[in-house]
Structure formats: C-alpha cells, structure tokens
Amino acid sequence: MDLLTSAHFWVGAAFVVFVVVLVVAGAHKLAWKTLGDAGDKVRAQLDEATRLRQEAQGLLDRIQADRENAEQLAKEILANAEEQARRMHAEAQEKLAEQIQRRGELAERRIATAEAQATAEVKAAAGELAAQMAEQVLASRIAGAKADPLIDTAIGQLAGKLQ
Q1: Are 24 and 18 in contact (CB under 8 A)?
Q2: What confidence tens digit (pLDDT) does each residue in 23-67 have?
Q3: Which residues are CB-contacts of 9 (< 8 A; sequence separation ≥ 6)?
C-alpha cells in the first residue's frame, strides 16, 4: 500500500497510461508520418539540389567548351590576320619596287628625250650660227670687194646672150 501513496508510482502509471493512449490514438503513426513527410521533403530538396548541381556542372562544361572554342577561333583569326599582314606587306613591297622601276624607266625616257631635244636644239643653233657667220663673211667680202672683173665679164656676156 505504500506503493499507492507514492508520487513516483502515480507519475510512472500516468506516463504508461499516456503512452497507451497515444498508441491507441495513433500518435505514433502521425509522428512517423510527420517524420516521413519531413524526410521526403529533405529528400526532394536533396534531389532538386543534385539536379541543379548537375545542370550547373553541365552549363559550366558547356561554357568551358565554348571558351576553349572561342580561344581556338581567336588564335586562328590572329594567325590568319598575321598571315594576311605578311602577304599584304610582301605585295606592297613588290608594288613599290615595280613603281620605283617604272618611275626610273620613265625618268630615263624623259632624260633621253630631253637629251635628244637638247642635241637637236644645239645642232639647230649651230646651223643657224653657221649660216649667220657665213652671211656675215659673204657680206663683208662683198662689201670689201668693189667688183670682181670676172663676174662683171660674165654678167656682160650673159646680157648679150639673153637677147
């Protein structure tokens, strides 16, 4: 009887009754369901996180591949540009050499033409000078000689023959 008056006994008995009531009422099922729902939520969140991680990894891989492609394309473009610049430089040097050669030939032709023209002008001036000197010499001889007897005789005979 001492047991029935003990507070510890009644607390223990109340606890056992409380647990039996909870089991009969299905509280354990509700607790398991709540824990299962929470676990399912956590599992769904983990699955979503895994899916997002895989998607992000796929995007990262694609971006890295695109970057590598872009770098390769940039290298190719740079190599093509350098090759084109070398080719244009070589063409420009060839054109410059051709232009210098053409201008040199044109200058040589102009010099040859100028030399020929100068030679012709010198010859013409020399001929004109010679003609002027001959005219001056003849004029001075004619002025110096009053009359040449042979020419006078020839002129006189000529007048008789024409009549």
Answers
A1: no
A2: 888 887 878 888 888 888 899 999 999 999 999 999 999 999 999
A3: 3
Task: Report whether 22 contacts 28 (CB < 8 A).
Answer: yes
| Angle subtended at Cα 79 by Cα 78 and Cα 83, rounded to the nearest 5 degrees | 115
How far, CA to CA in Å, does 36 sit from each of 5, 28, 29, 43?
Answer: 42, 12, 10, 10
Which single residue is written with the structure tokens 């290298």?
75
Instruction: Give the count of beta carbons closer than 10 Å to the beta carbon of residue 148.
Output: 12
The pTM (predicted TM-score) of the whole model is 0.42
* Cα gap 144→146, rounded to integer Å: 6
Q: Is the dihedral of CA 95, 97, 100, 102 positive or negative?
A: negative
> Are 9 and 3 spatial neighbours (Cβ–Cβ below 8 Å)?
yes
Block residue for tokens 């223990």: 12
